[in-house]
Amino acid sequence: MTVATPVPEQSSEVAAGPSLLHRLLVRPEVGAALGALLVFVFFSLITERFLSAAGIANWLDDASTLGIMAVAVALLMIGGEFDLSAGVMTASTALVTALLAVHAGWNVWLALLASLIFALSVGAFNGWLVMRTGMPSFIVTLGTFLALQGLNLGVTRLVTGTVQVAGIRSADGYESAGSVFASTLNIGGTSVQASVLWWIVLTAVAAFVLTRTRFGNWIFAVGGSLPSARAVGVPADRTKIILFMTTAFAGWVVGSCMILRFSSVQANQGIGLELHYIIAAVVGGCLLTGGFGSAVGAAIGALIFGMARQGIVFARWDSDWFMLFLGVLLLAAVLVNNRFQKRAERIRR
To answer: Which is the most buried residue in 77, 198, 266, 298, by most CB within 10 A?
Structure first.
Protein backbone atom coordinates (compact mmCIF):
# COMPACT_ATOMS: atom_id res chain seq x y z
CA MET A 1 0.00 0.00 0.00
CA THR A 2 1.34 3.46 -0.98
CA VAL A 3 1.37 6.09 1.70
CA ALA A 4 1.09 9.72 0.58
CA THR A 5 3.89 11.89 1.82
CA PRO A 6 2.57 15.05 3.43
CA VAL A 7 3.74 18.28 1.84
CA PRO A 8 5.54 20.56 4.29
CA GLU A 9 3.52 23.65 5.14
CA GLN A 10 6.29 26.07 4.19
CA SER A 11 6.48 24.76 0.60
CA SER A 12 3.52 26.86 -0.45
CA GLU A 13 5.31 29.95 0.86
CA VAL A 14 8.47 29.05 -1.06
CA ALA A 15 6.50 28.53 -4.23
CA ALA A 16 4.80 31.85 -3.74
CA GLY A 17 8.16 33.64 -3.80
CA PRO A 18 9.42 36.48 -1.62
CA SER A 19 6.98 38.13 0.75
CA LEU A 20 5.64 41.63 0.19
CA LEU A 21 7.90 42.93 2.96
CA HIS A 22 10.98 41.47 1.27
CA ARG A 23 9.98 42.94 -2.08
CA LEU A 24 9.59 46.37 -0.48
CA LEU A 25 12.91 46.15 1.35
CA VAL A 26 14.86 45.56 -1.86
CA ARG A 27 13.37 48.55 -3.65
CA PRO A 28 16.18 51.04 -4.48
CA GLU A 29 14.25 54.01 -3.10
CA VAL A 30 13.58 52.55 0.36
CA GLY A 31 16.80 53.89 1.86
CA ALA A 32 16.12 57.36 0.46
CA ALA A 33 12.55 57.31 1.80
CA LEU A 34 13.79 56.46 5.29
CA GLY A 35 16.43 59.18 5.06
CA ALA A 36 13.84 61.73 3.93
CA LEU A 37 11.62 60.80 6.87
CA LEU A 38 14.49 61.29 9.33
CA VAL A 39 15.43 64.68 7.85
CA PHE A 40 11.77 65.75 7.84
CA VAL A 41 11.24 64.79 11.48
CA PHE A 42 14.54 66.32 12.60
CA PHE A 43 13.95 69.79 11.13
CA SER A 44 10.27 69.70 12.08
CA LEU A 45 11.34 69.40 15.71
CA ILE A 46 14.08 72.03 15.79
CA THR A 47 12.40 74.83 13.81
CA GLU A 48 8.74 75.81 13.52
CA ARG A 49 9.21 77.51 10.14
CA PHE A 50 10.00 74.17 8.50
CA LEU A 51 6.38 72.96 8.68
CA SER A 52 4.75 76.28 7.88
CA ALA A 53 3.06 76.65 4.50
CA ALA A 54 5.73 79.08 3.33
CA GLY A 55 8.48 76.80 4.66
CA ILE A 56 7.15 73.77 2.78
CA ALA A 57 6.85 75.83 -0.41
CA ASN A 58 10.48 76.95 0.05
CA TRP A 59 12.01 73.50 0.38
CA LEU A 60 9.86 72.09 -2.40
CA ASP A 61 10.99 74.94 -4.65
CA ASP A 62 14.61 74.31 -3.68
CA ALA A 63 14.28 70.60 -4.43
CA SER A 64 12.34 70.92 -7.69
CA THR A 65 15.00 72.07 -10.17
CA LEU A 66 17.53 69.73 -8.58
CA GLY A 67 14.94 66.94 -8.75
CA ILE A 68 14.19 67.45 -12.44
CA MET A 69 17.86 66.97 -13.27
CA ALA A 70 18.43 64.21 -10.71
CA VAL A 71 15.68 62.05 -12.23
CA ALA A 72 17.20 62.32 -15.72
CA VAL A 73 20.70 61.72 -14.38
CA ALA A 74 19.39 58.67 -12.49
CA LEU A 75 18.08 57.12 -15.73
CA LEU A 76 21.47 57.69 -17.33
CA MET A 77 23.31 56.20 -14.34
CA ILE A 78 21.05 53.13 -14.38
CA GLY A 79 22.09 52.84 -18.02
CA GLY A 80 25.72 52.79 -16.88
CA GLU A 81 26.83 56.31 -17.86
CA PHE A 82 27.52 59.77 -16.39
CA ASP A 83 26.94 63.29 -17.70
CA LEU A 84 29.23 65.92 -16.19
CA SER A 85 27.86 68.56 -18.57
CA ALA A 86 24.38 68.40 -17.01
CA GLY A 87 24.94 71.39 -14.73
CA VAL A 88 26.38 73.78 -17.30
CA MET A 89 23.66 72.70 -19.77
CA THR A 90 21.08 74.52 -17.65
CA ALA A 91 22.99 77.77 -18.21
CA SER A 92 23.69 77.07 -21.89
CA THR A 93 20.02 76.58 -22.76
CA ALA A 94 18.97 79.62 -20.74
CA LEU A 95 21.62 81.73 -22.50
CA VAL A 96 20.54 80.57 -25.96
CA THR A 97 16.94 81.45 -25.13
CA ALA A 98 17.84 84.84 -23.67
CA LEU A 99 20.29 85.86 -26.41
CA LEU A 100 17.86 85.01 -29.20
CA ALA A 101 14.87 86.63 -27.49
CA VAL A 102 16.60 89.76 -26.20
CA HIS A 103 19.39 90.49 -28.69
CA ALA A 104 18.07 88.85 -31.87
CA GLY A 105 14.45 89.90 -31.34
CA TRP A 106 12.97 86.40 -31.60
CA ASN A 107 9.66 85.42 -30.06
CA VAL A 108 10.35 83.65 -26.75
CA TRP A 109 8.69 80.44 -27.94
CA LEU A 110 10.94 80.29 -31.03
CA ALA A 111 13.94 80.97 -28.81
CA LEU A 112 12.87 78.14 -26.50
CA LEU A 113 12.53 75.80 -29.48
CA ALA A 114 16.00 76.73 -30.70
CA SER A 115 17.52 76.14 -27.25
CA LEU A 116 15.74 72.77 -27.07
CA ILE A 117 17.21 71.73 -30.42
CA PHE A 118 20.62 72.89 -29.20
CA ALA A 119 20.30 70.83 -25.99
CA LEU A 120 19.14 67.68 -27.75
CA SER A 121 21.95 68.02 -30.30
CA VAL A 122 24.58 68.24 -27.57
CA GLY A 123 23.03 65.26 -25.76
CA ALA A 124 22.95 63.21 -28.96
CA PHE A 125 26.58 64.13 -29.69
CA ASN A 126 27.64 63.02 -26.20
CA GLY A 127 25.87 59.69 -26.58
CA TRP A 128 27.12 59.10 -30.11
CA LEU A 129 30.72 59.89 -29.17
CA VAL A 130 30.64 57.59 -26.13
CA MET A 131 29.24 54.68 -28.13
CA ARG A 132 31.35 55.35 -31.24
CA THR A 133 34.71 55.63 -29.50
CA GLY A 134 34.16 53.49 -26.41
CA MET A 135 35.63 56.27 -24.26
CA PRO A 136 34.26 56.62 -20.72
CA SER A 137 31.32 58.99 -20.54
CA PHE A 138 33.14 60.70 -17.66
CA ILE A 139 35.83 61.90 -20.09
CA VAL A 140 33.51 62.74 -22.98
CA THR A 141 31.10 64.80 -20.91
CA LEU A 142 33.95 66.47 -19.02
CA GLY A 143 35.13 67.73 -22.39
CA THR A 144 31.60 68.89 -23.22
CA PHE A 145 31.39 70.60 -19.84
CA LEU A 146 34.55 72.59 -20.49
CA ALA A 147 33.51 73.43 -24.06
CA LEU A 148 30.09 74.67 -23.00
CA GLN A 149 31.55 76.65 -20.12
CA GLY A 150 33.92 78.44 -22.49
CA LEU A 151 31.18 78.93 -25.09
CA ASN A 152 28.83 80.41 -22.50
CA LEU A 153 31.40 82.92 -21.27
CA GLY A 154 32.84 83.78 -24.69
CA VAL A 155 29.59 84.30 -26.58
CA THR A 156 27.87 86.14 -23.74
CA ARG A 157 30.78 88.56 -23.31
CA LEU A 158 31.03 89.02 -27.09
CA VAL A 159 27.35 89.90 -27.50
CA THR A 160 26.64 91.82 -24.28
CA GLY A 161 30.05 92.95 -23.07
CA THR A 162 29.28 91.30 -19.72
CA VAL A 163 28.72 87.75 -18.42
CA GLN A 164 24.98 88.28 -17.94
CA VAL A 165 21.95 88.41 -20.21
CA ALA A 166 18.84 90.20 -18.94
CA GLY A 167 15.67 91.83 -20.26
CA ILE A 168 13.67 88.87 -21.51
CA ARG A 169 10.50 90.19 -19.86
CA SER A 170 10.09 92.70 -22.69
CA ALA A 171 10.36 90.06 -25.46
CA ASP A 172 7.34 88.89 -27.45
CA GLY A 173 5.76 85.71 -26.07
CA TYR A 174 7.19 86.14 -22.59
CA GLU A 175 3.83 86.14 -20.82
CA SER A 176 2.58 82.87 -22.35
CA ALA A 177 5.95 81.13 -22.00
CA GLY A 178 6.25 82.36 -18.44
CA SER A 179 2.87 80.90 -17.59
CA VAL A 180 4.21 77.45 -18.55
CA PHE A 181 7.67 77.57 -17.00
CA ALA A 182 7.60 80.28 -14.34
CA SER A 183 4.05 80.71 -13.07
CA THR A 184 2.89 80.04 -9.53
CA LEU A 185 -0.02 77.97 -8.27
CA ASN A 186 -1.82 79.23 -5.18
CA ILE A 187 -2.40 76.37 -2.73
CA GLY A 188 -3.80 77.25 0.68
CA GLY A 189 -2.68 80.85 0.32
CA THR A 190 0.89 79.82 -0.52
CA SER A 191 2.51 80.17 -3.94
CA VAL A 192 4.00 76.98 -5.39
CA GLN A 193 6.37 77.37 -8.32
CA ALA A 194 5.72 75.77 -11.71
CA SER A 195 9.04 73.97 -11.41
CA VAL A 196 7.52 71.82 -8.64
CA LEU A 197 4.79 70.66 -11.03
CA TRP A 198 7.38 69.96 -13.74
CA TRP A 199 9.33 67.92 -11.20
CA ILE A 200 6.31 65.80 -10.21
CA VAL A 201 5.18 65.19 -13.80
CA LEU A 202 8.65 64.30 -15.12
CA THR A 203 9.29 61.98 -12.16
CA ALA A 204 6.01 60.16 -12.83
CA VAL A 205 6.83 59.82 -16.54
CA ALA A 206 10.36 58.58 -15.82
CA ALA A 207 9.13 56.06 -13.24
CA PHE A 208 6.52 54.73 -15.68
CA VAL A 209 9.04 54.40 -18.52
CA LEU A 210 11.59 52.72 -16.28
CA THR A 211 9.25 50.15 -14.72
CA ARG A 212 6.46 49.62 -17.26
CA THR A 213 7.97 49.82 -20.74
CA ARG A 214 10.35 47.87 -22.95
CA PHE A 215 12.65 50.87 -23.08
CA GLY A 216 12.91 50.72 -19.28
CA ASN A 217 14.05 47.10 -19.55
CA TRP A 218 16.64 48.17 -22.10
CA ILE A 219 17.98 50.81 -19.68
CA PHE A 220 18.55 48.22 -16.95
CA ALA A 221 20.01 45.79 -19.49
CA VAL A 222 22.62 48.13 -20.97
CA GLY A 223 23.57 49.33 -17.49
CA GLY A 224 23.86 45.83 -16.07
CA SER A 225 25.93 44.28 -18.86
CA LEU A 226 26.38 45.94 -22.23
CA PRO A 227 27.72 42.83 -24.07
CA SER A 228 24.86 40.69 -22.73
CA ALA A 229 22.30 43.32 -23.69
CA ARG A 230 23.64 43.43 -27.23
CA ALA A 231 23.68 39.65 -27.40
CA VAL A 232 19.92 39.47 -26.75
CA GLY A 233 19.09 42.15 -29.30
CA VAL A 234 18.83 45.29 -27.17
CA PRO A 235 19.56 48.41 -29.31
CA ALA A 236 22.28 49.56 -26.92
CA ASP A 237 23.61 52.51 -28.93
CA ARG A 238 20.17 54.00 -29.47
CA THR A 239 19.22 53.47 -25.82
CA LYS A 240 22.27 55.26 -24.45
CA ILE A 241 22.04 58.12 -26.94
CA ILE A 242 18.42 58.70 -25.91
CA LEU A 243 19.46 58.70 -22.26
CA PHE A 244 22.05 61.42 -22.90
CA MET A 245 19.40 63.39 -24.79
CA THR A 246 17.11 62.98 -21.78
CA THR A 247 19.58 64.67 -19.44
CA ALA A 248 19.99 67.46 -21.99
CA PHE A 249 16.20 67.85 -22.17
CA ALA A 250 16.03 68.09 -18.38
CA GLY A 251 18.72 70.77 -18.52
CA TRP A 252 16.58 72.67 -21.01
CA VAL A 253 13.53 72.48 -18.73
CA VAL A 254 15.51 73.77 -15.74
CA GLY A 255 17.18 76.48 -17.80
CA SER A 256 13.81 77.60 -19.19
CA CYS A 257 12.30 77.76 -15.71
CA MET A 258 15.22 79.82 -14.45
CA ILE A 259 15.45 82.37 -17.27
CA LEU A 260 11.71 82.97 -17.39
CA ARG A 261 11.38 83.19 -13.63
CA PHE A 262 14.33 85.47 -12.88
CA SER A 263 14.53 87.17 -16.33
CA SER A 264 18.33 87.04 -16.31
CA VAL A 265 21.06 84.41 -16.49
CA GLN A 266 24.76 84.37 -15.62
CA ALA A 267 27.18 82.68 -18.01
CA ASN A 268 28.74 80.68 -15.17
CA GLN A 269 25.42 79.49 -13.76
CA GLY A 270 25.03 75.78 -13.01
CA ILE A 271 28.75 75.00 -12.73
CA GLY A 272 29.31 72.45 -9.95
CA LEU A 273 25.68 71.36 -9.74
CA GLU A 274 26.37 68.21 -11.79
CA LEU A 275 27.86 66.66 -8.66
CA HIS A 276 24.70 67.47 -6.71
CA TYR A 277 22.61 65.72 -9.38
CA ILE A 278 24.76 62.62 -9.15
CA ILE A 279 24.68 62.64 -5.35
CA ALA A 280 20.87 62.95 -5.36
CA ALA A 281 20.64 59.98 -7.75
CA VAL A 282 23.01 57.91 -5.59
CA VAL A 283 21.07 58.81 -2.44
CA GLY A 284 17.95 57.70 -4.31
CA GLY A 285 19.33 54.22 -4.87
CA CYS A 286 21.43 54.36 -8.05
CA LEU A 287 24.69 52.45 -8.11
CA LEU A 288 27.78 54.04 -9.64
CA THR A 289 28.29 50.79 -11.58
CA GLY A 290 24.88 51.00 -13.31
CA GLY A 291 22.03 48.54 -13.71
CA PHE A 292 20.28 49.42 -10.44
CA GLY A 293 18.31 52.46 -9.31
CA SER A 294 15.03 54.31 -9.27
CA ALA A 295 13.59 57.53 -10.73
CA VAL A 296 11.37 58.00 -7.69
CA GLY A 297 14.38 57.43 -5.44
CA ALA A 298 16.29 60.21 -7.24
CA ALA A 299 13.35 62.55 -6.71
CA ILE A 300 13.37 61.67 -3.01
CA GLY A 301 17.11 62.29 -2.93
CA ALA A 302 16.50 65.79 -4.29
CA LEU A 303 13.78 66.28 -1.68
CA ILE A 304 16.31 65.46 1.05
CA PHE A 305 18.59 68.13 -0.42
CA GLY A 306 15.82 70.72 -0.40
CA MET A 307 14.69 69.92 3.13
CA ALA A 308 18.23 69.93 4.51
CA ARG A 309 19.33 73.11 2.75
CA GLN A 310 16.26 75.11 3.78
CA GLY A 311 16.12 73.46 7.22
CA ILE A 312 19.64 74.68 7.93
CA VAL A 313 18.58 78.19 6.91
CA PHE A 314 15.45 78.06 9.07
CA ALA A 315 17.51 76.83 12.03
CA ARG A 316 19.95 79.74 11.46
CA TRP A 317 22.96 77.48 11.21
CA ASP A 318 26.05 78.26 9.19
CA SER A 319 25.44 77.11 5.60
CA ASP A 320 28.85 75.42 5.60
CA TRP A 321 27.26 72.58 7.55
CA PHE A 322 25.34 71.66 4.41
CA MET A 323 28.53 70.41 2.73
CA LEU A 324 29.26 68.20 5.73
CA PHE A 325 25.73 66.87 5.42
CA LEU A 326 26.29 66.11 1.72
CA GLY A 327 29.49 64.19 2.39
CA VAL A 328 27.99 62.06 5.14
CA LEU A 329 24.84 61.51 3.09
CA LEU A 330 26.80 60.30 0.05
CA LEU A 331 28.89 57.82 2.03
CA ALA A 332 25.84 56.47 3.85
CA ALA A 333 23.90 56.15 0.59
CA VAL A 334 26.66 54.14 -1.12
CA LEU A 335 26.84 51.71 1.79
CA VAL A 336 23.05 51.33 2.01
CA ASN A 337 22.64 50.91 -1.76
CA ASN A 338 25.24 48.16 -1.92
CA ARG A 339 23.46 46.38 0.91
CA PHE A 340 20.09 46.64 -0.80
CA GLN A 341 21.51 45.37 -4.10
CA LYS A 342 23.01 42.29 -2.45
CA ARG A 343 19.73 41.58 -0.66
CA ALA A 344 17.83 41.95 -3.94
CA GLU A 345 20.18 39.53 -5.70
CA ARG A 346 19.71 36.92 -2.94
CA ILE A 347 15.92 37.18 -3.16
CA ARG A 348 15.93 36.87 -6.95
CA ARG A 349 17.87 33.63 -6.70
So the answer is: 298
Distance, CA of 113 to chain centre: 22
**3-state DSSP call for residue 144?**
helix
Q: Which amino acid is at 110?
A: L
Phi and psi at 28, nearest 5°, equal -60, -30
In whole angstroms, give the CA distance from residue 43 to residue 307.
8
Element (H, E) at 187: strand 184-187
3-state helix, strand, coil in the chain (%, to 5): 75, 5, 20
Q: What is the pLDDT of residues 285-325, one digit of tens each?
A: 888 889 989 999 999 999 999 998 899 889 888 877 887 88
What does DSSP assign to residue 51?
A: G
**Average pLDDT estimate for 143-171:** 94
Q: What is the mean pLDDT of residues 30-34?
A: 84
- pLDDT of 11 over the 60 cut: no
Spell out the SS3 assignment of 209-239: HHHHCHHHHHHHHHHHCHHHHHHCCCCHHHH
Using an 8 Å Cβ cutoff, are 89 and 148 in contact? Answer: yes
Residue 23 pLDDT? 63
> Any idea what DSSP says for residue 6?
P
What average pLDDT does the segment 28-38 reach?
84
Residues 232, 209, 21, CA angle at the centre, nearest 5°?
A: 90
Which SS3 state, helix, strand or coil, does residue 196 take? helix
Cβ contact 259:265 at 8 Å = yes
Query: pTM for the full model?
Result: 0.89
Distances (CA, A) of 177 to 101, 122, 252: 12, 23, 14
What does the H/E/C string look like for 282-327?
A: HHCCCCCCCCCCCHHHHHHHHHHHHHHHHHHHHCCCCCCHHHHHHH
Please check whether residue 267 is in contact with residue 164, taking contact to mean a CB–CB distance below 8 angstroms: yes
pLDDT at 340: 63
